[in-house]
Amino acid sequence: MKTVNDFDFNNKKALIRVDFNVPLNDDLEVTDTTRIEAAKPTIIKILEDGGSCILMTHLGRPKNKEERFSLQHIVKTASEILGVNVKFVEDCIGNMATEAVSNLVPGEILLLENLRYYEEETKGDRNFAQQLSALGDIYVNDAFGTAHRAHASTAVIADFFPQNKCFGLLLASEIENVNKVLTNSQAPVTAIIGGAKVSSKITIIENILDKVDHLIIGGGMAFTFVKAKGGSIGSSLVEEDKQELALEILEKAKEKNVQVHLPTDAIIADSFSEFANTSISDAYTISEGWMGLDTGPKTNEDFAEVIAVSKTILWNGPVGVFEMAPFAEGTIALGNAIAHATKEGAFSLVGGGDSVAAVKKFNFTDRVSYVSTGGGAMLEMLEGKTLPGINAILE
Ligand code: AMP
Question: I need a labelling partner for 333 at 20 to 30 A (CA). Which of 88, 136, 190, 250 fits?
């Protein structure tokens, strides 16, 4: 796996696909800088070698070059974070871009205008990719967030750099860390899959059954399993048409010697609200009119015991409606158990949108081994898919 560390960028122009698709507020200010910070090590390595950086990214989903999606809005923040005055050019291809690139000297950074101002980007247009490729000497992909897309700047462009292409440090570490769970794991391996729906996690579960010793299922999706097993779940979230699939998963897990852990008790509520009346119930005998919105204390203890003996831990999806304080305990207890196991030497990876949000909200970021930055890309890796952005560099 070639990374920027395998190249000397002295006097070279690195064309880097970054993921600066950051959130902006109504005043068009960056409200979360995580993604810019994540690309910094790659950029600094290239500058320190004596090279220059041409950064290309998309921002949002603009239609017809909408001004609010201009990358101009992030220049100031990027300059502050990177510690270098970032130059900006109002196009990503054509004369203006070419000229800005030719004026670039070692030590400088140039940010190109939004790639998605051209529909050719998402279409993976070869000609567009070729025009982009003309801007740099070495192509670097450091955009894990879009690695699952076969877009012009994420995959197609790599064809024009048969020798001079590599992974940025962020993308390389994402791949390495997922592989610590999927290919080079230390047993016992435990996956915790939570979140709302079985249907969105089914492929992940199927893929990881071959790789784990324990599967903990929590969140709204657990109730489809509980109901399929004959439990009464009141008005808890359920996907009626996925019950059979749930039983099949349990059967497959048994065949593969995977121990499945489902909630045995739940925090129930009489409405989906922070102000609902709540109670603790057996997960299999929830009364009509009540819904399970979090794992109960007994479940939290059981899950923590499994986690305590695990050497490799994957966490995807909260086990309760953690956005509301009365239903956050299960997710917090789980985070604490994972943090404790990590301290004792286990490797823990948190990946996928909402678990990352939960980890941030409850300050577990520094207490787990690795928090993945790419939501969809991470999920597809866990599903066992080959990501076009990664493949394009490896080929
Ligand atoms: P996902 O995006 O599939 O990982 O789902 C995350 C969402 O699942 C979060 O917004 C949680 O509030 C929600 N969730 C977790 N547990 C439950 C539950 N028991 N009932 C309904 N929603 C839940």
Answer: 250
